[in-house]
Design a protein that fits this description.
heterodimer, A: alpha/beta, Rossmann fold, 2 domains, 10 helices, about 20% strand, B: eight-stranded antiparallel β-sheet, six-stranded mixed β-sheet, 13 helices
Chain lengths: ~300, ~400
């Protein structure tokens, strides 16, 4: 099994008739994802990629029993698309769009409060459960079905780590890109909690980077739950220049948090294994699993 | 986009927030004329840079007359100002803002900001001004009060009265303060700002508030809704420094100049950060940060390579591409080939190609006749690039 998606996931694509939406919908269908409809306002009643197109998410859901959506809508209207999917009570919404205005995302977060929706993204490569479903734009060439969950702030590093895990003989249960924006949907900590509850996930890789406090929050959850499943973290940006201009606004809420050192210190203290660099994440997980299984149950 | 103090104050003034009488000046003579047009009193000459901590570093100077203002402006204009927030090179002072000095009976701190961890807008306030860069310390002392703001029909909704009551000293009208905080919160929403900070907010002897300093940062992603502010960004980039980053941005490239000698080309921000880390770990010094976004075409990538080739400090190029679902390896290699054929500079290249279409990209690179050393992993490629440069130096 996987987290967030499963064999019953029925997906609509908001913005399917656009260039990116059309291209990636074909890829997702080819991968075996059950895409059931497209949504483009004004194009209701048409057919695209042999799928019905609806004007609204609500219409599409009523006609197809969809329970998830993937959004390829330009930044100016992406928030409205997310809010529409949330109001239609879809269980999972994945938004790929880059450069959504921050205040729009705050409006989306308000819509999420008390809703039945889990939002992934925006500015996310999406969710991939190898062999089950692809709701996203990631490469699938190196992904293999297996027991490692990945929650990541970086699409490119997720591809990198997937390749390393597969090379180390470790398949993946699900990979989730939480997205690169400061205000977004599901975070590292929530993904980690889902992976810890998933019986088919044997180990978890967290991929973090400078900024924000998500790594620290994942560390706090780990410290509280003391899971037996090994958790490996990669945090990048140690040698990035300090964004001095952003420093003031960025340091505003977080105090000293936000740099790689403090994130790694928090994760280490919670018992998370730190991958010393981006080249050895697969190997670090392989060793961590070997050490865990060596302990008698 | 960070706005200069004088622009932020202009916007505040237009929305009914009191600011000291003042004008921007580009020359010492202009600064003198500004003072001559003002009522007699005391004046402040303030360097316009996108960083705080100016006073302690001579970036804010007082003047008692027009002549003093001219001297103060001449001391700042055309020179870099270094503060705790600028980095060692400092920031060039192109303009000074000259305003009437404010007499305050007390000073407050007010900010409206996006709290990324909480995913909400917050209003923050304290009954003391906050030394630049030391907001954290004030928070630790428990002096910074906070309230969450909701956006309802594009208006800010929050318990502004409650926040004002917790901050306002006895001599200050809490109701007026609440109205001011609400006004600032609505400005944040109207202008798609992610920060508006008034520090200090002076309480005038006759009552009323005056924004003595103002910081305002507008969300770059929302500039499409604010054409007037977007044009300011262009002016700023042209006049205020290196326009390279903005030009690169238009080409779907995130580029940040660094001070090393190994040019770095990577697709993806996370992978780019990891590449810098690996390069530094291997003893190399990156000349730039580069994240080729998924939307970049081969011509955009050629442009990106030209940026690297144009940097005279660069002695070698480290190419690290993990082809994904959106950006394939071969697109990047094609861009590189275009740039290297057009350019008149040949540099040693270490390439690490993985993921979508990596084999194809490798063949393309060879068929373009570009000589390169291949790295088997990020670390291996970084070590080879670092070794190339250090060998050359020896």
């Amino acid at each position: 099994m996987a987290i967030l998606v499963g064999p019953d996931t029925r997906v609509i694509c908001q913005g399917m008739t656009g260039h990116a939406g059309s291209y990636h919908t074909q890829r997702m269908i080819a991968y075996g994802t059950r895409i059931v409809a497209g949504v483009t306002p004004g194009k209701g009643g048409q057919t695209a990629l042999d799928l019905p197109v609806f004007n609204t998410v609500r219409d599409a859901k009523a006609a197809t029993e969809a329970n998830a959506s993937i959004i390829f809508v330009p930044p100016a209207t992406a928030a409205a698309a997310m809010i529409e999917a949330i109001e239609a009570e879809l269980g999972l919404v994945v938004c790929v769009t880059e450069r959504v205005p921050v205040l729009d995302m705050i409006r989306v977060r308000q819509a999420l409060e008390g809703s039945k929706t889990r939002l992934v993204g925006p500015n996310s490569q999406g969710v991939l459960a190898p062999g089950v479903a692809q709701l996203g734009v990631m490469s699938t060439v190196n992904a293999r079905s297996g027991g490692i969950g990945i929650a990541s702030r970086s699409a490119s590093l997720t591809s990198e780590v997937v390749a390393q895990l597969t090379a180390a003989g470790l398949g993946q249960s699900t990979t989730v890109g939480v997205g690169g924006d400061p205000v977004h949907g599901i975070d590292l900590k929530s993904c980690l909690a889902l992976f810890l509850d998933d019986p088919d996930t044997r180990g978890v890789v967290l991929i973090g980077e400078i900024g924000g406090t998500e790594e620290e929050e994942a560390a706090a959850l780990t410290a509280r739950l003391k899971p037996r499943k090994p958790i490996v973290a990669l945090v990048v940006g140690r040698d990035a220049p300090r964004e001095r201009r952003m420093g003031h606004a960025g340091a505003f809420m977080a105090g000293s948090a936000g740099n790689v050192e403090s994130k790694i210190a928090a994760l280490k203290a919670a018992g998370v294994r730190i991958a010393p660099n981006a080249s050895v994440v697969g190997e670090t997980m392989r060793q961590a699993l070997a050490a865990t299984t060596a302990i008698p149950a | 986009m960070h706005m200069h103090e004088f622009l932020a104050k202009e916007l505040l003034s237009r929305r009914g927030v009191a600011i000291p009488a003042g004008r921007v000046a580009a020359t010492a003579e202009d600064a003198q004329k500004v003072v001559q047009s003002m009522t007699p009193g005391r004046y402040v000459v303030k360097a316009q840079i996108h960083a705080g901590d100016r006073f302690a570093n001579g970036g804010i100077r007082f003047a008692d007359n027009a002549g003093d203002a001219r001297i103060a402006a001449a001391a700042m204009l055309g020179k870099p100002l270094v503060t705790r927030q600028t980095g060692l090179a400092g920031e060039m002072v192109r303009w000074v803002y000259v305003e009437e000095a404010v007499t305050a009976i007390t000073n407050l701190y007010i900010a409206i900001a996006v709290d990324r961890a909480a995913g909400e807008i917050v209003a923050l306030g304290a009954n003391v001004p906050v030394d630049d860069g030391r907001v954290g310390a004030v928070m630790d002392r428990g002096q910074l009060q906070r309230t969450a703001i909701r956006i309802e029909d594009d208006k800010a909704v929050a318990d502004f009265a409650g926040l004002a009551a917790r901050i306002a000293p006895a001599t200050v009208s809490a109701a007026e303060l609440a109205a001011l905080i609400e006004r600032l919160a609505n400005m944040l929403i109207e202008f798609d700002a992610i920060l508006i900070e008034i520090n200090p907010l002076a309480v005038a002897p006759g009552g009323g508030f005056i924004a003595v300093d103002a910081k305002m940062t507008v969300d770059d992603n929302a500039l499409f809704r604010h054409r007037d502010l977007a044009s300011l960004r262009q002016v700023d980039a042209n006049v205020d420094g290196d326009p390279t980053e903005l030009q690169a941005d238009r080409r779907h490239i995130n580029y940040v100049a660094l001070d090393g000698n190994i040019g770095v080309v990577v697709n993806g921000a996370g992978l780019a950060l990891a590449t810098l880390d690996a390069l530094v770990e291997a003893g190399g010094r990156p000349a730039n940060f580069m994240d080729v976004r998924t939307t970049a075409t081969s011509l955009d990538i050629a442009y990106a390579f030209n940026l690297v080739l144009a940097n005279k400090a660069v002695r070698a190029v480290l190419l690290n591409v993990h082809g994904g679902g959106m950006q394939r390896c071969d697109t990047i290699v094609e861009g590189m080939a275009i740039a290297m054929r057009r350019g008149n500079r040949s540099l040693p290249v270490v390439a690490r190609l993985a993921g979508n279409n990596a084999d194809f990209a490798r063949d393309r690179l060879k068929s373009f006749g570009i000589k390169f050393v291949e790295g088997t992993s990020i670390g291996d490629a970084a070590r080879r690039a670092a070794a190339m440069v250090s060998k050359e130096v020896v």
